[in-house]
Amino acid sequence: MQSNKFLRIGIMVLALFAFAACSSTSDTEGMDSSTTSSSGSNATSSGTSGSGSLSQEDIRRQNALRETVFYFDFDVAEFQAEDRETLTYHARDLAANPSKQVRLEGHADERGTREYNLALGERRANGILNYLIVNGAARSQIEVVSYGEERPAASGQTESAYARNRRVEIVAR
User: Fold this and answer.
1) How far is the C-alpha of 171 from the C-alpha of 155, rounded, in Å?
2) Which of 75, 76, 95, 118 keeps 20 to 30 A from 165, CA to CA?
3) pLDDT digit string (tens) for 127-139?
């Protein structure tokens, strides 16, 4: 009984420590993002020591732009909430580079008719299209295509394979 109480207190202390560590990191990251986003360039921020190292914001942006596949729940056309930040970086990148063009390729798993899956893939891609436009991208930079179930990323009839096939890919054109 006494050891359970100490265990709970220990876990709470660790959780508070982790929370405090994360909050202090986000404060400095917030300062980095304001310095780099106001400059509008891809160069390192002026807050660095001149050694050519990237700011936290630059690293986050580069990592986000490497992420080009977004997954969906079964029979759902809305992208997942955790993808918003990454998609915002894609929208800002398109807005900052007007000559850049991308294709949004919508996909579905094999369940459902061919026609339904084509329409679902298109709805998924259009959902991401609308988010990109609202966040600064131009409609003329983005092409939407749906492949439905025709180009699976994984073969098989397992939930894992189905989950990998319900996606939208951002492809540079």
Assistant:
1) 21
2) 95
3) 999 999 999 999 9
Beta strands in the chain (DSSP E): 69-71, 102-107, 142-148, 167-172
d(CA 123, CA 116): 10
Residue type, 8: R
In sequence order, what are the residues at sequence separation of 6 or more whose Cβ sits closer than 8 angstroms to the Cβ of residue 134? Answer: 91
For residue 20, report the phi and psi dihedrals to the nearest 5 degrees: -65, -40
**Exposed, middle or buried, 148 (CB in 10 Å: 0-12/13-18/19+)?**
buried
* CA distance linking residue 57 with residue 140, whole number of Å: 27
| Domains of the chain from N-terminus onward | 68-172 (3.30.1330.60)
Q: Write out pLDDT tens, residues 30-78.
A: 333 333 333 333 433 344 445 578 999 999 999 999 999 999 999 999 9
